Amino acid sequence: MYPTSLTQLARANPFSAPLFSLQKLEEPQQSLGGQRPRRLAAAATSDEDVSCEFGSSKYYALCGFGGILSCGLTHTAVVPLDLVKCRLQVNPDKYKSIGNGFAVTVREDGMRGLAKGWAPTFIGYSMQGLCKFGFYEVFKIFYSDLLGEENTYLWRTSLYLAASASAEFFADIALSPMEAVKVRIQTQPGYANTLRQAVPKMFAEEGLWAFYKGVVPLWMRQIPYTMMKFACFERTVELLYKYVVPKPRSECSKSEQLVVTFVAGYIAGVFCAIVSHPADSVVSVLNKEKGSTAAQVLKKLGPKGVWKGLVARIIMIGTLTALQWFIYDSVKVYFRLPRPPPPEMPESLKKKLGLTE
Question: Please, which pLDDT band fits residue 128 given cuts at 50, 70 and 90?
């Protein structure tokens, strides 16, 4: 018989990891080479073949570098779609749909017009990626140390949610200035064509406030998005291996694992886009209009207006999320960073639950 309080805690935990049940655990089977299967998207690096210590300054720095590549490159690659999405949000009377938005933009500005805002996009989202992935690793270890081994295991999904939310708080402060510049360039034809033109003009008109007035809506958009991005990705990977992939992950090749990663990332991205889209609409309009507040913009858009451009954003965010996980994991493999295996129930907790003699 399991101890009542611990049993109820584990079963009642609303953020408990999927597939968790209080049953006697069997030791995981050893894969070829004597390594345990790992739940990471790219191929695992053996414990003996690592370039730095887990949780070291070098580890955090390289994780941050992986975040720079994953976010900076992917967001810059979809600038044309992002431009059309922003214009759908701020001027729905002129831009009727995704296809119409592309056609009108090319007709007025040529093909080069689709690349407007690429520089602030690359700089801003590179800084965001540095903080998002780098601080996520920092906060994940920090919160785990605060919780202790047993609570870290029981509440590990809650830990992922808390760590990602904390990291995104700082990531959005780093992103906000370049996001404001990007939206101004993309949504106000004739205002400025380049980063160098837009920054001094915005500063002269509104001062530093021009670059940070959208940070609160950014938090409203990005923090739920990032929490969904990490939690949903982990759950989707597990469900794909359980119900879709016809063989255990340990028997899948590296290429097959990466396909699962991409699919899981895309599915997570769809949910991310839906959760964060209303705030994204507010940010786009807020950065276009001088002197407006988030509450004024929200009232102006109304319940229907905040969902304009959702299809374009689902396509963009789904692709971005899938590629970001792929790039981030690949960077960690390339630099031979330590990659701990999935958490296992601590021996002390097994004894309390009566799972061991």
Answer: very high
The amino acid occupying position 20 is F
The CB-side HSE value for 212 (13 A sphere, CA atoms) comes to 7
Each residue's pLDDT tens digit, 206-249? 888 889 988 998 898 889 889 988 888 877 877 888 788 888 76
- Residue pair 76/121 in contact by the 8 Å Cβ criterion: yes
For residue 131, give every residue at least 6 positions away whose Cβ sits within 8 Å of its Cβ, in sequence order, or none: 64, 67, 167, 168, 170, 171, 174
- Rama region for 252: left / alpha / beta (φ>0; ψ in -120 to 50; rest): beta
> How far is C-alpha 321 from the geometric centre of its chain's CA atoms?
6
The domain ranges of the chain are: 50-339
In this predicted model, what pLDDT tens digit does every residue of 225-234 receive, in sequence order? 899 888 888 7
- CATH fold group of domain 50-339: Mitochondrial carrier fold (1.50.40)
